[in-house]
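On clarity, I found the account of how folds are encoded harder to follow than it need be. What matters is that the chain and its backbone geometry are given together, residue for residue. I therefore recommend that a typical entry be quoted early in the introduction. An entry of this sort, consisting of the sequence and the corresponding backbone structure tokens, reads as follows:
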Amino acid sequence: MSLAASLEPLSQLVHRGGASGVTGSCHQLLYGDHHSLLIDCGLFQGEDAEQDEFKQLTVDFDVKTIDALVITHVHIDHVGRLPYLLAAGFTGPIFCSKPSAKLLPLVIEDALKIGFTRDARLIEQFLQRVEQQLVPLAFGKWHNVTSTPTCHVNMKLQRAGHILGSSYVEVALRDPLNKRRQRVVFSGDLGAANSPLLPAPKAPAKADVLVLESTYGNRLHEGRLDRAAKLKQAIERALHNNGTVIVPAFSIGRTQELLYELEGIIHRADKQSLWKSLEIIVDSPLAARFTQVYRDLKPFWDSEAQTRVRAGRHPLSFTSLYTVDSHATHEQTVRYLAESGRPAVVIAASGMCAGGRVVNYLKAMLGDARHQVLFVGYQGAGTPGRDIQRYGPQGGWVMLDGERYDIKAGVTTISGYSAHADQAGLLGFVKQMRHWPRSIHLVHGGAEARRALKVALESLAAKHGKTLKVTLPVNQPE
């Protein structure tokens, strides 16, 4: 039996990562004679990275058949294996949205410095090669991938609402000899409804096969008003305790959304309120660079954000916002906030506390009840963030850089700020299609989330009299 599970006569699908796990997204669509399309090529993180079959620093499958790589968005679990894909010999085009093309070099440069080399010359050479292969595409327009005697393949990107530039991918396959057609849709990561800055994703008209993310397939998010109130309350709790709010956040996407929401709270606050003098600190050079790109890409913001700009407001560049660049200033800031008790909000990477500057804040402040750790994003199993989230409210401990730290700081989680659609959003993505898929592959989710979403989708199909096959694929890295 072939490793690739047959979907339709026109194509086969192999999951090179991100199927039986939440990270390492990489899906290969095989078609025609020795041709394929690769959707994402991301790093494994947390428990996913500990599995024996995952070899982070290699790409073990044959890249000769790949006509093109399509990047849905630039999070590291979707693009982090790009250096190894190119090292394995891939020389084809790299398709992505125009905003993603602006952001990708920053992500890859950072990934190279962390996991490959800090040699500036080598990094520049690699970035030049990526630039040569990069093909930025406009949203909503078909683009030809390849045309062979047995299969014509076209694709287009649609807004996914996850982070700036994020896309879902529609792939149209046509057999000119036998007049057969197939539409395969890869969701990438779909954004939550009412997310700051970005319009919500709109479902495609149809799909025969849908590869659907399931990160929050078993969860419902809080509404935007509820989550904004919780954000305000969590910060005010630390203010009254003369403490700092530590927000672990991904440098791209979550940081900018939080700044947008905080600007709104500050704008609405009474002039005598502590909010007017509260320092909002972004301690991440990478996040600061991403934020600048976000500012430069205002045309891609949603209508609400555009209204703020027209009113003379600056959602990502307000008066009380400070950025920390140098490592020396970072260390001074950690010491000052830990010792002084000056109220502040610090947003720092990494989002799952697995590295980066946020770890130094946690080491200095977790043992002090004045402070507050505020989680606003998914914490993968096996990461320090998940341990703090799980054991912190019980007065537990966490291992950071091989040392044990007791947790006395407050720990709060706001699920509504997730950049991923919840179960209702994922069901809605399917329900909104005029022609539903016959087959859905659930990927990018934990076992419980995938099972729950499978049951919900099957129930939805039965309610609407649809025939729907929902599968839970496994990774096939080689």
